[in-house]
Amino acid sequence: MNTYKDYIREIEERKSQGLHPKPIDGAELLSEIISQIKDKNNEHREDSLSFFIYNTLPGTTSAASVKAKFLKEIILGESVVEEITPAFAFEQLSHMKGGPSVEVLLDLTLGNDEAVSQEAAKVLKTQVFLYEADTERLKLAYDAGSVVAKDIIESYAQAEFFTKLPEIDEEIEVVTYIAGVGDISTDLLSPGADAHSRSDRELHGQCMFEHNKDMQNELLALKEQHPDKRVMLIAEKGTMGVGSSRMSGVNNVALWTGISSSPYVPFINIAPVIAGTNGIAPIFLTTVGVTGGIGIDLKNWVKQKDADGNTVVDENGEPVLKQTYSVDTGTVLTINTKTKKLYNGDKELKDISTALTPQKMEFIKAGGSYAVVFGKKLQTFAAKTLGIDVPQVYAESKEISIEGQGLTAVEKIFNKNAVGTTPGKTLHAGSNVRVEVNIVGSQDTTGLMTSQELEMMAATVISPIVDAGYQSGCHTASVWDDKSKANIPRLMKFMNDFGLVTARHPEGKYHAMTDVIHKVLNDIAVDDWDVIIGGDSHTRMAKGVAFGADSGTVALALATGEATMPIPQSVKVTFKGNMKSYMDFRDVVHATQEQMLNQFEGENVFQGKIIEVHIGTLTSDQAFTFTDWTAEMKAKASICISEDDTLIESLEISRDRIQIMIDKGMDNPKLDLKGLVDKANNRITEIKTGTKPALKPDADAKYYAEVVIDLDKIVEPMIADPDVNNEDVSKRYTHDNIQPLSFYGGTKKVDLGFVGSCMIHKGDMKILAQMLKNIEAQQGEVNFNAPLVVAPPTYNIVDELKAEGDWDVLVKYSGFEFDDSAPKGLARTKYENMLYLERPGCNLCMGNQEKAEPGDTVMATSTRLFQGRVVRDADDKKGESLLSSTPVVVLSAILGRTPTMEEYEAAVDGIILTKFKPSQKQLVV
Q1: What are the Aconitase B swivel domain coordinates in residue numbering (predicted)?
Q2: Cβ neighbours, 10 Å, residue 746
Q3: Are 394 and 372 in contact (CB under 8 A)?
Q4: DSSP-assigned letter for residue 883
């Protein structure tokens, strides 16, 4: 928005959508607004004042820079605005969070006007978003004998910016709202199809509950009936926030139910309260902490036990649940932050101390985790400058060390990368640790929010601690529409300027890459001791330990090179037996979930834990199929334990793929990609020489649980079924309903097949080509009775398939091949019964661009089966997305139905599927 006239035109357009003016982030527009404020006779002066005061984004936006300078003029008397006194100008600066505002405050503090200096210092003492350039100015002034600089630094050392904040209310009254029964996907709170609007918070807020106006109105009515209470959003008989971190989901919940972060910054709310019978999905809970919210594990339904302590099951073998207390919509409850318990009136319902740990209480008090992270950093600077020990203001980091107990793989990684812990102390699970981050990934539908978060925390460059950051273009790859054209180039320029390697170069210096981010991160993670943070729940690499995160946590990792979290407990997964020759590794992945649930009477022991999978013999390409799926297992993260030779092979593959990126011209000025090649070579040398073998846990490490998967029991393909018509609504759309192929009797109609997403690798594409040749040889021709959409994960895979001849096979049978010189501008609404070779990227799995036709039954290799994600419901039929291996998907599309075992075995005859044999070597030390 370049001119005021354009802005007014946009405001009128937004009015028709029931929206307020969009917050201002551009310097040109705000400069014009300031000119109109200065002109007392200007017809737009009153509106301009309002826009300036209440509708300008803070942080490092170009508008914030213009605003801060004008406020400085007012404070110094260089400009006089009757409505904005110097005192009010200081108040405005105090809400601008850093960057230009801190620069102005430092100018005023260190200036010659003593009265102004004292007032500026008061404000500066409340600020936490200071960077090296800011603290260096303070230190130089302190070293030169500045009294005011000394006063500020002493205040910082005592963390008065935190200690002088209002205390948390002892009692927080909430009124409940059941948002759904069963697991609630973040798609309900922020649908993938609305990804384009996430950075426009008010507009995006309209998609809450998947645009269900009835639910939105119920929520508004509840707020009106209880104006003095907070609304607690609940997943009854389920887990809240499964599927992805989705900062936009938390933003929407906060927008509808939370508290305004500042009277001068619109549509940015904080402190939502959410809950679930089975708690909050791990990465979504982290996102809640970013906003200073509260996430509660209700446990209001429990399994019934018989006299012998065995779980009581119904006629379907499902555990019988009993309600221990009601949280029906409209129930008034009290969160007591002192006793850390949940009450209904005087009746105690539940201990909620895990939701109100000392660290989480600090997030609540500070209005979010960012302020705490930056506050600790600022306090450390101040104490070091003064030459004193850091005063104990914040809650002590929880350090759990158990003598004589070995370490799991994740405990080893956290101990290696931890900062600020007691020197020489070995930490075990449960410890709360700051760790340095090696790789950070930002994806394109949350990247715009990440860029906003970086601006609001006044960050301008990636932390030197980070080996490399990568900005993808995969979630908007399939359709290059007007929304993408408006958003993605702007995002790529911001991230490229910030110091990331970007999928698109702002000046088009290399071919735009739409590779799936998880595949790229899996390649650029070149050390099994690395910590990786990525803006997507499927950031789960097969080397190192990777955590999916919200856009804010990604921004924090980019800006500081650190992440803070408890060391999670681990669940050890090992294998025995042998895979059948006609089974694919995807079947092993699904069988792992099924066998785990059977072994633990339906309890998901993976939820919130690290899955330490002793994969041994699979390279990271293939092993990623397992680690990727651990998001659907509700795990916090996963770690692969590999044999030395296997890890070397994985690192060599990664190194060579990074070199391809370099050869394409994708390296940044700091040559981060070259640094990763060097790091990979060093790690390979360490393993080959025995200096530092592949990461392995200690033999005496302690696990939350141990799961042994029997490969002999996997005798037919396994399918994750959303069970859309289950009478128990809470059992629908979970990933825990795993069925064998024979369950469908070869008769279930399939309307569309999808081979793609992060769950496939090059081997899957070769399997597809070989199956088509097989079927033609057996039947004389290949006829598709349902559309088959194929989206390779990366361009590298396409290039390799072309070199090896497999791409030509796929083209022969296809009716559509993507063309980068003329990318699609419109999403498909209809599919013909043929093979579509789509552009590399997420495609159907993301649900924000391409979708199956409403009511379709989809068989897919992807990860998402949530309602409305891949396919919407039709009026007469629920859409359903069944998840399975590549061979099952391909055959289902050709047949137009699920295959029988006989048909399946014939179709894969002679084809080498993804093989897996348990390691015969010792994978512990």
Answers
A1: 181-407
A2: 15
A3: yes
A4: E
* Residues recorded for the chain: 925
Whether residue 2 has pLDDT greater than 80: no
CB 107 within 8 A of CB 72: yes
For the chain, what is the total number of helices (H) and then of strands (E)?
31, 33
Residues 449 and 540 in one domain: yes
* 305: β partners: 311
**Phi, psi dihedrals of residue 361, rounded to the nearest 5°:** -65, -35
Q: What is the mean pLDDT of residues 721-739?
A: 91
- Do 612 and 754 lie in a common domain? no
| Half-sphere exposure (Cβ direction) of 637: Cα atoms closer than 13 Å | 27
Q: Which domain holds residue 560?
A: 431-567
Closest by Cα among 383, 393, 355 to 162: 393
The string over 887-904, giving b where at least 16 C-beta atoms fall within 10 Å of a residue's C-beta and e elsewhere, is bbbbbbbbbbbbbbeebb
Helix (H, G, I), strand (E, B) or coil at 179: strand
Mean pLDDT value of segment 218-233: 97
- From first CA to last CA, the distance across the chain in angstroms is 60
d(CA 361, CA 813): 59
Q: Could you tell me if 563 and 575 lie in one domain? A: no
**How many domains in the chain?**
5
CA 172/CA 80 separation, integer angstroms: 43
Helices (H), 780-885: 795-804, 806-813
pLDDT of residue 220 exceeding 70:
yes
**Cα(298)–Cα(276) distance, integer angstroms:** 6
Query: Strand, coil or helix: what is 342?
Result: strand
Q: Which 3 state secondary structure label does DSSP give 442? A: strand
Give CA–CA dist 672/652, Å, rounded: 17
Tokens of 264: 């001068």
In this structure, of 173-187, 482-496, 839-853, the range with the lowest mean pLDDT score is 839-853
**Statement to judge: residues 690 and 645 lie in one domain:** yes
Band (pLDDT 50/70/90 cuts) for residue 308 is confident
- Return the CATH number at 634: 3.40.1060.10
Gap between the Cα atoms of 191 and 878, Å rounded: 17
Distance separating alpha carbons of residues 171 and 346, to the nearest angstrom:
12
Nearest to 558 by CA among 549, 567, 566: 549
Residue written as tokens 């846990």?
Answer: 697
In the predicted model, is pLDDT for residue 380 greater than 60?
A: yes
DSSP per-residue codes, 93-155: HHTS-STHHHHHHHHHHTSS-HHHHHHHHHHHTT-----HHHHHHHHHHHHTT-HHHHHHHHH
- How far from 372 is each of 155, 170, 288, 461, 462, CA to CA, in Å? 16, 20, 14, 20, 20
Q: Which residues contact 21 (CB under 8 A, 6 or more apart)?
A: 7, 10, 11, 14, 51, 55
Query: Is the CB of residue 652 less than 8 Å from the CB of residue 664?
Result: no
